[in-house]
Amino acid sequence: MRDMDLPIRIPLENTPNETSEVNEDGSDLLNNRSRADSANNATSQLQLSTPNGNLYQPLPTGESIRLLRLQPGPRDEPISCSLQPANFNDNLPAYEALSYVWGSSSDTRPIICNGREIAVTRNLRNALRRLRRRDSTRLIWVDAICINQRNDEERGHQVRHMGSIYQRAARVLIWLGKDESEEAEQAFLLVCSIANQNSGKDIATFIKDSTKEPFSNSGEPPPWDSSLWEPVKSLLDKSWFTRMWVVQEVILAKSATVIWGDAEIDWNWIGTAASEIWDNYQIRGQCRMQGLENAYFMHSLFQRQHKAEPEFYNFLELLYWFQDLEVSDARDKVFALVGIPTQNSAPEDGSIFFEPDYTLNVRDVYIRVARKIIEQDKILSILACVVPDGSDYPWSVQDFGLPSWVPNWTAYWAAVPIVGFYNSTKHTASGPVRLEIIGSDDPKVLLAKGLELDFVSQVLPVLEDGDYGAVSERMQSCIDAYFNHGSSLQQLSKTFTAGYTGSNILIEDDISHLADFAAFLRRVDPAWTYAVDDISESDLPNHEGDAEHYQVALYNYCTCRRLFFTSHGKLGLGPAAMAEGDTICILFGGQTPFVLRHENNHYILIGACYIADIMKGEAITEWQSGSTTIVEKVFELW
């Protein structure tokens, strides 16, 4: 499987709005909020039991769960169900697990559970109505009802088991909501058309609950600008695709069925279609379906998990790939992933990477998981995921009082972090020198050995996504600075994209990348041809250049970053928050150089940076050869 690439993400609103209008799929129309995962919302949202007693009895053991038995009946009659205990150490009865968006806590409907009236969200009530059989009971695991959301201790225990719950279910049922606009059938027909182009012997089909007959489509997909794509856009814009919790729910499933109104389709066909669209970067650049990239990532992870010999990520990769998915409780950015097997954990065998504990605050959770990642991976890749406070990024994030070296996993990445997890995506600025972390009595302080290389002497304007498709004064100033400092055009072409191509892998062919850059400059503004006039045809043999390919890389890595020059005349690309006088260093175990700011007797991490001629260990070699301008020291990061 090829390396997964992380594109620019569309910012989504996470703030609950109790007065907003609510869609039938459970999402808020005004802010498109995902399910209320937090205990605060859950307490007011559910389990409004009658005075006859508590709905829940304590679970007998740490391996116990509850299952919901859904009683039969016509679709529009009131829902009646009951809870029954089960134990992982016993023979679990065959059950299904529901994956869905909770919806707004202000929009609830009554159901009967264990003979008592309780309130559930309208979207959950709709899901239970759709899933209820007419003449037989159905055994389902539904988190909002099967977990006592008012009990933090129980929540922590059950969250620890959620991966196993979905993994052991006979099937995962993905509820997207009611099909109010009657788009599901057309959407699934086009999904089948896309998936059947490369499905081999298996034929993609879907069924309608009213007929139970399979439907398919083996015809060619329509042109991208056809209105026939609108139902697929509506499908991938469903708020289910933005939820953090659904990641483990779908990738660990033995099988999963996507249900939208009266129609249902195997999850594999949704994922296959999303991957086919995603692999065409030209189409990908035109679409703004918020669920497309998440469907692609989940499908890719699903495939890796279900190989004969599964391939696992490390925990940082999971945080990285799914960083922009929504939660209402910021701690769930970590807790929602602990059920997924990684290179360092096997939840099914009782070994999880990080113990979910809802008595910890967000700051402590993020600090502890950052330290554990550094200890386990023995590299400093996590530092490249930091979005510095005070940056010029236009999306505000909640301040949890984190140290500068600890990523805020609720922050929006305006640019793709300069970090890789495969040989084809990893810079090696610290060469073979291993991580050296010195113990500290203060968990908020990171003491890391490294090399002080240089200082920032000039910073150029922060580039924005609007600077790449038309004439831009900011872009012009960067081109002019290149001429004033005498940098090579090839170096500039690599610096703008942090050494990556439009496919988010390291540049292997400098000439092709330079040709793409020249094509981009000519397309954006003919006046910039002077910047490429000194490139002779012999420099670019048989390379016409792909302007769009270069622009994708530029958009990914340069947005909300800035070019800079060091006191030694080196050209670099760094965070928007960097300033003149900042320190350029290499920390042992880091993939890239870093920008630090000296304050009093310590340093603040500003972020990772790119400097073309020190990304492959060149500075380490120079230091080991006895350079007097490179200083080894311990950096105390706060």
Describe the protein.
The chain is an alpha+beta fold. Among the domains are: 39-179 and 237-261 and 304-358, no CATH class; 437-637, no CATH class. It is 28% helix and 18% strand. It has 18 helices and 20 strands. The protein has helices at residues 39-45, 122-131, 143-146, 152-168, 184-195, 230-236, 246-251, 267-278, 281-286, 292-305, 315-321, 332-335, 362-377, 473-485, 489-496, 510-524, 547-558, 618-624, and strands spanning 64-70, 80-87, 96-99, 108-113, 116-121, 138-141, 171-177, 205-208, 214-216, 256-260, 263-266, 437-438, 446-459, 561-566, 571-575, 583-587, 594-599, 602-608, 610-611, 631-637. It has an eleven-stranded mixed beta sheet. Strands 12, 13, 14, 15, 16, 17, 18, 19 and 20 form a nine-stranded antiparallel beta sheet that branches. Helix 5 (184-195) crosses helix 8 (267-278) and helix 16 (510-524) crosses helix 17 (547-558). The radius of gyration is 26 Å and the shape is globular. The relative contact order is 0.10.
| Widest beta sheet: strand line-up | 5-4-2-1-6-3-7-10-11-8-9
What gyration radius follows from the Cα positions, in whole Å?
26 Å
**What level of helicity do the residues show?**
25-40%
Q: Given the structure, what is the number of helices?
A: 18
Specify the biggest β-sheet. Answer: 11 strands, mixed
Structural class: alpha+beta
Overall 3D geometry? Answer: globular
Number of strands: 20
Pick out the low-confidence regions: 1-22, 28-52, 390-396
Distance between the termini: 39 Å
**How confident overall, as mean pLDDT?**
85
Strand residue content = 15-25%
